[in-house]
Amino acid sequence: MGKKISIVVSVYNEELGLQQFYDHTTPILQQAHENTGWDYELIFVNDGSKDTSLEILKEFAAQDEKVAVINFAANRGHEAAMIAGIDYAAGDGIVCMDADLQHPPESIPDIIKKFDEGYDVISMIRTARDDAGIIKRITSAAFYKVMNALSGKTKFENNSSDFFAISRRVAKVLRQDYRERVRFLRGYVQNVGFKKTTLEFRAQARVAGESNYNIKSLIKLSLNAICNFSDAPLKMGIYAGVFSILAAIILLIYSIVQYFLNKQPAGYSTIIVVLCVMFGVLFIILGFISEYLAIIFAEVKSRPIYIVDSVITKDGEEQK
User: Fold this and answer.
1) CATH for 4-230+304-319, among 3.90.550.10, 3.40.190.120, 3.30.310.50, 3.30.160.20?
2) Which one of 132, 171, 260, 304 is CB 3.0 to 4.6 Å from 136, fit for a cystine?
3) pLDDT tens across 272-308, in order?
4) What's 37-71 look like in SS3?
5) DSSP 3-state helix, strand, coil percentages of the chain (rounded to 5)?
6) Residue 210: burial class (beta carbons within 10 Å; 0-12, 13-18, 19+)
7) Euclidean distance between the first and final Cα of the chain, in Å?
8) pTM higher than 0.90 for the full model?
9) 301: part of which helix (H) or strand (E)?
């Protein structure tokens, strides 16, 4: 029996670009099947779309036996959609990508070659992004520098993305062991081990519609990533305490010297600045503690990562 590759596509309000994605991707998969012998399945995960995305996906499934649609009961987020696709996928290799064609399907044949070479994890590294301004580029680079500085032994590939590929045995580990409610999936993929490699790609502009990620979403993702892979923020209190003691000793010595020189130390401005700095540090530390407590709270509740309303294939719609 030949091998199969599963393409997992997260969909949320992508009605304007889905047809282009399908028409662009399926010929590449068919050609890869002819050239490499790898069969394929195309798994769309509808993450509670409010537009006509689900109807379009049902049409794909009705006409193409290689298409399956996992329809969520409600919006659960991009990462939950990818996890659901990985859970459902039956392929020897699994590729996670977005439906806006920023993740080029042309990379799939190269990914298959890496699987044939024995790699289990293929991280796709973005070399450029056509629709990204200077702010996005700076913040993206800064994010990975901060993550690598805080995460200890775990190191992340710079400019890696939610476009990645994993083997069947890596997927098995993710299904059984990496089931956190608050997660950073691309980090798990790089952290799980096994034989890893990278491929580069250039992110094109979206074919249609607008990105569902805003500043608030990106900040939330960054905090989740930091809290998932580092306890350094929890140690900030120790460092801040040591710094405060040293600063107090220096200020005490300065005040004593000024006293013996019969000079009255200027106190008002110094006190205000010190208080503002220390309260700022204190609130940052409290904020991080709150984030860790929120993660613990989510894990203790142990609610499902996602809830599937139905799975749609050419054979029809199966309620779950």
Assistant:
1) 3.90.550.10
2) 132
3) 777 777 788 888 888 888 888 888 888 888 888 889 9
4) CCEEEEEEEECCCCCCHHHHHHHHHHHCCCEEEEE
5) 50, 20, 30
6) exposed
7) 30
8) no
9) helix 268-301
